[in-house]
Amino acid sequence: MSGETPAVDRRQEDIVRANMPLVGHLVREMLVRVPAHVNRDDLLSAGYAALVAAARGFDKERGVPFPRFAAARVRGALLDELRGLDWASRSVRQRARRTDSAREELTAELGRTPTVRELADRLGCTVEDVEHAADDVQRAAVFSLQGFATATADDIVTEPGAGPEEMLIRRERLGYLRHAVDALPDRLRVVVEGYFFGERPMAEIASELGVSESRVSQLRAEALVLLRDGLNTHLDPALAAENPPKEGCVARRRAAYYERIASRGTLRTRLALTGPDGLPKAA
User: Fold this and answer.
1) Which pLDDT tens digit goes with each residue over 225-257?
2) Confidence of residue 162 (pLDDT cuts 50, 70, 90)
3) Is the backbone of residue 278 left (phi > 0), alpha (psi -120 to 50) or beta?
4) Backbone angles phi, psi at 103, to 5 degrees
5) For residue 21, what are the CA distances in angstroms to 17, 27, 28, 74, 272?
6) Which of 41-45, 52-56, 58-62, 181-185 has the least mean pLDDT?
């Protein structure tokens, strides 16, 4: 800055001030697609720093409007911030998939959700290993409408400027997500809404339900699997067909849950849960 004239400094400051709402918009757009634990202020700080850098490097002679130039820089900075949060290693992700598979197998065999001890025995590890792995995975968990699996930061950020058709599809998916959460069994719904939407501590949810924190972690994992399969059943039948439910009471309960999701509303009511910009409407 020492080599720049005051006039240039003032010009940059004016540009930054005029475009600060752009950062807020991009952060709000991203917060819809990231886990609840992602800090809004951290994203704003990264975005504002990128905006200042964009003002310093902007050359109007290139013929690119500053908002478009800055938006690319800000999105890149937000993506870098998310990459810093996305610390789950490939081995953690692989362990998460093995744990999910073992949990589903035991649920089908036992006709109930397995205990952490039973899950550890199936995986050939200790209870502590299972609990620590679950904590690691949940820090990087993202509500992915294609799988509710852990995702990288690059998977989170969608291409800017979705067209009308893409926006309608996105809004329909978000509507299905809301209805899928509403249709969950009571205890699972309390955990999902409290932990992901309400950002409540696990200990607080455990106290409300009268169970241990380990049990809440187990319920959380069970709910994510159920949500994933329920959404895939309605939004991606081909993907759901790759993992068909086994016969028995577990399969019947799952089928009943899938029907409850469908009965929660129509395309019109699902779209009504978000605004034209795709952001959720206040309850």
Assistant:
1) 888 888 888 887 776 666 666 667 878 888 899
2) low
3) left
4) -65, -40
5) 8, 10, 11, 12, 26
6) 58-62
115 token code pair: 């205990």
Tokens 């409290």 -> residue: 194
Separation between Cα atoms, residue 260 and residue 62, nearest integer Å: 55
Cβ atoms of 33 and 159 within 8 Å: the answer is no
Residue 280 phi, psi dihedral angles, 5° rounding = -60, 140
Q: Between vectors from CA 260 to CA 182 and to CA 170, what angle results, nearest 5°?
A: 60
CA 181 to chain centre: 13
Which tokens go with 16? 């930054």
Reported in sequence order, the residue ranges of 58-201 that DSSP labels E, i.e. its strands, are: none
Give the residue among 34, 69, 64, 255 at the shortest CA–CA distance from 152.
34
Q: Which runs of E-coded beta strand occur in the chain?
A: none
Tokens (6 digits) for 38: 């992602």
Predicted confidence (pLDDT) at residue 123 exceeds the cutoff of 90: no
Write down the pTM of the prediction.
Answer: 0.47
The separation between CA 130 and the C-alpha centre of its own chain, rounded to angstroms, equals 22
- The answer to whether the CB of 106 falls within 8 A of the CB of 114 is yes
Q: In which element (H, E) is residue 51 found?
A: helix 40-57
* Whole-angstrom distance, CA of residue 158 vs CA of residue 96: 24
DSSP 272: T
**Counting Cβ atoms within 10 Å, is residue 27 exposed (0-12), middle (13-18) or buried (19+)?**
buried
Residue burial 129-139, b: 16+ Cβ < 10 Å; e: rest: ebbebbebbbe
Measured in degrees and rounded to the nearest 5, phi and psi for residue 15 equal -65, -45
What is the torsional sign of CA 248, 224, 146, 169? positive
